[in-house]
Structures are given as structure tokens and as C-alpha cells.
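assembly run, all chains below
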Amino acid sequence: MSSDAGSESRIRTAAWIGLPLLAVLLAAAVVAAIAIGSTGIPWVTVVRVLAARVLPDGWIDLGGVSEADQVIIWMIRMPRVVVAALAGGALGVAGTQMQGLFRNPLAEPSVIGISQGAALGAVVTFVSGLAAAAVFWLPLFAFAGALAALATVYTIATRAGRTPVATLLLAGIALGALATAVSSLLISLSVVNWQVANEIVFWMMGGLDNRTWTHVWMCLPPLALGVLGARWYTRDLDLLLLGEETAASLGVEVERVRRVILTTAAMLTGAAVAVSGVIGFVGLIVPHMLRLVLGPSHRVLLPAAMLGGASFLILCDLLARTINPPEEIRLGIITAAFGAPFFLYLLRRQWGGYSLQ
Amino acid sequence: MTLRARLLRRGRLRAVLEAALCLVLLAAAWRAADGTRADWPRAEDSAESPAGFPRTVHDHAGDPLRLARPPARIASQALVTDHFLFAVVPPSRIAAVSSVAHDPRYSYVADVVAGLDVAVVEDSEALLRRRPDLLLVSHAARADMVSVARAAGIPAFRLRTEFDDFEQITAGLETVGRLTGRERAADRVIAEFRERVAAAVARRPAAALPPRVLVYVAMSGTFGAGSLFDHILTELGAVNVAAEQGVGPHGMISGEQIAGWNPDWIVADAPAGEEDAARRRILDQPGVAVTTAGRTGQVLVLDHRRFITMSHHAARLVEAVAAALYPDTP
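ok done. output:
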């Protein structure tokens, strides 16, 4: 890094310009996503209905607005957009944490098996019939799967109170492969029961169809805790970019910070997968794109990744449901269509000696 | 670093701003949380009720649904419920169907649906605009969909769409008849279904040895004990080889197992128009070629619709299998 005064100035500039711009982008994405759907609703109507919901009774007159429009905006589009924002923001923050912790621009939540663990939890609910029984089972099992995966990886990789990063990564890859294999086994045993197999395959491609306010309330607590925890350790993440020994010498309790950051990343990823299915590349490309523009300081990068991830997923979802109406393209396909070329670009840059600092 | 030091480092102004933002968001969320259910006028709000209504019907999950009058704008989420619906109620009362209903590869009502102005259930917004007063949902559908429908004020009714025997199929038809006030139409469909099945079962010669039949569907799947196919074969006086070998309702099998089990008949599926090519592929498999079925060419390939589409159209599957197993009897 360059001199403290110069870098601090750049951080402030990035914060005062970049973050408001991202907030405006998010607001525009939200309005566009709510206003655009398979049936046309004027954006003025959208704003009126939303305002009537948030402001005290009587402030907004909804005369002339059909009940169908009100229900579509508030019960169909709004929860879907909110879930997209929350899941995208969560994945953005988790990806930023992973890239900072592992000091690798190719890191994302799936490298230590969190996403795969969440997917396995969800597949269990499909195969057992719990997913059809009540709304909360699938998100609950997905979230539990994410945390169980993290706990298992950490237990395997920790010896004498130390958790080497390389061991953590290898354990995560192995566990992720195992979780994927078990999920595939359950799917293969169910494939002849085509209704269940259909549901599983569609869910694993990611999607936000039929999202309700229940999904919003379910993912908010772990998400809020994860974001708060992430914000709390931004300075430590910045110091870890300098290397573990340097960070330790500057007062960072490396093992404890790593444990907390991984736990918050697991909570964020688990919450996102629980309500949106398996969606890849958000945690990879969003932090990276923003780092190129705003710099590596996590004080700015974390909130930026939250705003950017939210905007990205909302816009991808908008594309997914409008590109081939009335059918929807699965959301994971859209994010992969953007993410895979960017991933290849990152690989080429890394060969050129690109670093996170 | 202590908590106090962390707070001071972050700056009081930023902490206050962030806390204020959180409070505003929480207040907006609290305000918005009221009235998260829609209250559309429903059938039960009407003044007059036809004979037999109001009535309460319990769905597959045991949840009661009270109907004040016969629903006039019915939506169906699954192919099985599409078939039930089109068999029992006039098309004018159908507001939305599943996307698969439009696909002639799987649907027996695709040609009828093509001529109707119906929404696709998977498009939630188009479904809502039709203001359905009843949504038939598969028992296996995710709870999210039912939750969205009920939150939007649409009465959702879970109906069984996987069947282990003929009585479950007729029970489904009876339920649809009861829900829609079309009991007599449902009874006619049930009677026809039973007649067709009885006629197919009657093809079996009295002294015939039970043929050993193996179901072999796409991706090496089979239907064993407890499946509808098992019931069909039992009714036809045949032996379900997969059930005989201990396979459950759904299972995967290998060529080696087929060779070892040596079925007399193999019943498989293929896309419509590709039955002959699929039959040749199956006969070319080494595990099949050494079996009685493979040596005698007793491989029956039917189009997908007969396997994927159950409902009362399972009678077509029964008829086709009976005609293959007992070709000498009318």
C-alpha cells in the first residue's frame, strides 16, 4: 500500500462517491424490478402501492388501482425483489470476506463447502417430503447444512488450536465434493419419481419464484448478524491482506478473527442459499469488480459488495423472468452466464501477477 | 481490541447514522408487515349458494377448504390435476393450467388447451389476474407455492398426484367432482375408467401362466413394489419382476440385473414417434439380449404420456400392456 495519508484520502473518496452511486443503482434496480414483470403495471402505480404500504394509512389514495395490481406488486414482486437484494447482498459480503481471508481473488463461499452443505440440506427436505409440508423446512435445513459444513471443515482442519489456510481449503474442497456426491445420490434415487426430481433440479439451479414475505423474515436474522459481524472486522481483514504474520504483529488475533469471519460468511451464504437456491458467481465477481474501482479497503468494499451484490442479483432476476416470458430462465444460469467469462478473465489476470492489495 | 476501542475507532457520527438507518428500515418493515394477506372477494362471499353448497372438503394435507359455491375460475398446477379438471368440468370454468398441459408429449389435453384462453400457473402474475377461486396443487408441490397462493387470497387445495392403485385415482376424481359440484360428471369418468380397466383385465386367459414383466424407463429406472405399475401388473395377472426382486416403488437397475432377473417382457417408454428406435436400442443392450424378453423380442415401448401421465388416463397404459401380454384374446 502507498502512504497512509494518500490511501486514507482514496478510501474516503471511494466511500463518498462509490457508495452513494451504488445505493442509487440499487434503488433504480429495485424500482425497475418491481415495475417490470410478465404483466405490465405503470411505474407510478408501483410507487403509489409501495408508498401506501409503508406510510401511515390515508396518506396515499389508491383509488383506481386494481386489487390485482396491488396483490401483484406487494405479494409477488416485492418479496421477490427484497429476497433478491438480501441474497445478493449476503453473497457479495461473504465473497468479499472469503477473498480477503484467503488472499485469493478466486475465493468464494463454495471453496470451503458452505454452498454444497446448504444444497445438501435442501435436497434432504425434497426427498423426505418436508419441502412440501411447510415453507420454513427448506430454508431451515439449507441454513443448518451450511453451518454443519463449516463446523465439519473447521474441525477437520484444526490441530492444536491452529487452522492453516491451506488445510482449510483442502478440507473444504473435499467436504464440498462429498456433499455434492451425497446430494447426487439422493437425486439419483429419486429421479424415477420425476415430480420430486423436477423440484430438486429446478431448485439447485437457483431461482426466486414463489418467494414470500416469510422468506424475507426467515433470512433477515442470520443476514443481519452476518453483516454486523463482517462490518466489525473490516480492519482485521485489511491487515490480513498483508499476511498472517504481519497481521499478528499488528495485534490481530488471527485464529479468532478467521473463525469469526468464516462463521459470518457461513451464516450469510447459508441464509442466501436457503431462500434462493444455489446461485454461483455472485460472491466471486461482485467483490472483484468493485475492488477494481473502489480499491481494496474493506471499510468501503464490504458495504459496496452488499449494495453491488444486491443490485446484481435483482437485475439478473429481472433478466431471468423477462427474457423468455412467460417461462423463467433459472437464476443460476443467468449469473453463471455473466460470472464464467469474468472468472476466466480473472484467471488470465492472475497469471499476470494480479494481487488483492 | 476492546469493544469500546472498536466503537470509538468507527466514529460516533457513523455509528449514529447507521443506527438511524437501521431504525428507519425496521420501522418501514414493521409498517409494511401489516396486511400481508390479500382479501379478495371469494365464492363464499356471494349471497346465494347452489344446492349442496356450502361444503367443506379436506385436502391431502388434511387442511379443510370451505366452498360457499362451486368455483367458477379454477386453476391447476400439475398435469394430473389438469387431466382431472378437463375430464370433470367444462373448459369455460378453467382459468389456468400447468405449463406441461400445453405439451403434447406429456399431456392428453394439449389440443384442447391450445384453443383456450388460459393462463399458465407458473406465471404467478398472469394467474393472479385471472382471479381464480380455486387452485388445485399437487401434494408434492413446494409449500412456497401454496403459501403464495393463500397469501394472495387464492384458496389452494392439495390433491394427490401420485398413485399406488386405481382406487386412489378414482378418489382423486371424486374429490375434484366434490370440489367443483360436478359429482355426476366425475362418476361418469370413474365408471368409464373402471370399465376400461375391467375390459383389459378380462383379456387374461383363465389358465395362463403369469408373465414376468419388467418396467424399464428412461435413465435405467424401474417401478417396483407399491407403485401404480405394480398394481397394474398384479391386476393383469402378471408378475412385476422388480417387485419380485425387492425393488421399492422407484429404483434404478443395471443391465446385469436385467440379465439375472430374466423377464419375459420388458415395458419401456420413449418420446412419441421414437418407439421403434428405442425398442431397437433396448434389444441391443447385452443385458437385455440374453433374457427371454430379448430373445423373443417381447419389448413393449410406449410413448412418455402413458408413464408420466397417470390420472384416469392410466387406463390407456393398462389397455396397452394387456394387449401386448394377451394378444390372442379380444
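DSSP finds 15 helices and no strands in chain A.

Residues 21-350 of chain A form a domain with the ABC transporter involved in vitamin B12 uptake, BtuC fold (CATH 1.10.3470.10).

not gonna interpret more than that til we talk
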